Amino acid sequence: MNNKPIIALDFPSEKDVVQFLKQFHEPLFVKIGMELYLQEGPSVVAKVKELGHDVFLDLKLHDIPNTVKSAMKGLARLGVDLVNVHAAGGINMMQGALEGLEAGTSPGQKRAALIAVTQLTSTTEQQIWDEQKIQVPLIESVLHYAKITKQAGLDGVVCSVHEAGLIGEACGDAFLRVTPGIRLAGGESHDQKRVATPDYARNNGSSLIVVGRAITNAQDPVSAYKTVVDLWEEK
Ligand SMILES: O=c1ccn([C@@H]2O[C@H](COP(=O)(O)O)[C@@H](O)[C@H]2O)c(=O)[nH]1
């Protein structure tokens, strides 16, 4: 797994993905999420891997432990680099996910890194109070989810840039902080609430950044990607 910015391939079909990826002439780190996977299924993962790219399969599993364990066993066979669950599923569910992933990984194959979503980057503090009835500051909820994720033995979390530094201090630098909600300065936030720029992410504890629409909706996606890489690498 490399540490390039992860491009979110939020497209409706494999055809759109292949057309998008044709513009790039280097191996990338890309994310396949629900929109694409639920339309195209596992074959789109194989296609993107065949084109030479690292893959984060972002399906955010959240179910009873036994179901998540079995699902992860199946996903392990796809040979992706990074997968995830929701930390709200609990410690037993996360341990089940890890067991499934280990059981489904062939001998000699590297196990995918497993991370858990804390609070979605589209969520605000007001929302966790009103809708989830979590009566603590959002940072505390995110930190708590990070700590139980570590306790379950997972490799890291999905969080916003604004919590990444504190999670690094609490859970150690090797514990991954994968941060979506990345925008270029002055860019439209869309439905995201806890956003930051790539250079802010670099300086504030992110291990990996996820960038979708700031690249995929750009007039020149290759040039937008290059800008993100330059800011992320602090050139
Ligand atoms: O908390 C989360 C977890 C996952 N995502 C995913 O990342 C991308 C972000 O796309 P943008 O276009 O850059 O907003 C998207 O695929 C989400 O499903 C997230 O945003 N926040």
Automatic annotation (TrEMBL):
<dbReference type="InterPro" id="IPR047596">
    <property type="entry name" value="OMPdecase_bac"/>
</dbReference>
<comment type="pathway">
    <text>Pyrimidine metabolism; UMP biosynthesis via de novo pathway; UMP from orotate: step 2/2.</text>
</comment>
<dbReference type="InterPro" id="IPR001754">
    <property type="entry name" value="OMPdeCOase_dom"/>
</dbReference>
<keyword id="KW-0456">Lyase</keyword>
<feature type="binding site">
    <location>
        <position position="212"/>
    </location>
    <ligand>
        <name>substrate</name>
    </ligand>
</feature>
<feature type="active site" description="Proton donor">
    <location>
        <position position="60"/>
    </location>
</feature>
<comment type="subunit">
    <text>Homodimer.</text>
</comment>
<feature type="domain" description="Orotidine 5'-phosphate decarboxylase">
    <location>
        <begin position="4"/>
        <end position="228"/>
    </location>
</feature>
<feature type="binding site">
    <location>
        <begin position="58"/>
        <end position="67"/>
    </location>
    <ligand>
        <name>substrate</name>
    </ligand>
</feature>
<feature type="binding site">
    <location>
        <position position="10"/>
    </location>
    <ligand>
        <name>substrate</name>
    </ligand>
</feature>
<dbReference type="InterPro" id="IPR018089">
    <property type="entry name" value="OMPdecase_AS"/>
</dbReference>
<feature type="binding site">
    <location>
        <position position="121"/>
    </location>
    <ligand>
        <name>substrate</name>
    </ligand>
</feature>
<dbReference type="GO" id="GO:0005829">
    <property type="term" value="C:cytosol"/>
</dbReference>
<feature type="binding site">
    <location>
        <position position="31"/>
    </location>
    <ligand>
        <name>substrate</name>
    </ligand>
</feature>
<dbReference type="GO" id="GO:0006207">
    <property type="term" value="P:'de novo' pyrimidine nucleobase biosynthetic process"/>
</dbReference>
<feature type="active site" description="For OMPdecase activity">
    <location>
        <position position="63"/>
    </location>
</feature>
<keyword id="KW-0210">Decarboxylase</keyword>
<dbReference type="InterPro" id="IPR013785">
    <property type="entry name" value="Aldolase_TIM"/>
</dbReference>
<comment type="function">
    <text>Catalyzes the decarboxylation of orotidine 5'-monophosphate (OMP) to uridine 5'-monophosphate (UMP).</text>
</comment>
<dbReference type="InterPro" id="IPR011060">
    <property type="entry name" value="RibuloseP-bd_barrel"/>
</dbReference>
<feature type="binding site">
    <location>
        <position position="192"/>
    </location>
    <ligand>
        <name>substrate</name>
    </ligand>
</feature>
<keyword id="KW-0665">Pyrimidine biosynthesis</keyword>
<comment type="similarity">
    <text>Belongs to the OMP decarboxylase family. Type 1 subfamily.</text>
</comment>
<feature type="active site" description="For OMPdecase activity">
    <location>
        <position position="60"/>
    </location>
</feature>
<dbReference type="Pfam" id="PF00215">
    <property type="entry name" value="OMPdecase"/>
</dbReference>
<dbReference type="InterPro" id="IPR014732">
    <property type="entry name" value="OMPdecase"/>
</dbReference>
<feature type="binding site">
    <location>
        <position position="213"/>
    </location>
    <ligand>
        <name>substrate</name>
    </ligand>
</feature>
<dbReference type="GO" id="GO:0004590">
    <property type="term" value="F:orotidine-5'-phosphate decarboxylase activity"/>
</dbReference>
<protein>
    <recommendedName>
        <fullName>Orotidine 5'-phosphate decarboxylase</fullName>
        <ecNumber>4.1.1.23</ecNumber>
    </recommendedName>
</protein>
<feature type="binding site">
    <location>
        <position position="183"/>
    </location>
    <ligand>
        <name>substrate</name>
    </ligand>
</feature>
<feature type="active site" description="For OMPdecase activity">
    <location>
        <position position="58"/>
    </location>
</feature>
<dbReference type="GO" id="GO:0044205">
    <property type="term" value="P:'de novo' UMP biosynthetic process"/>
</dbReference>
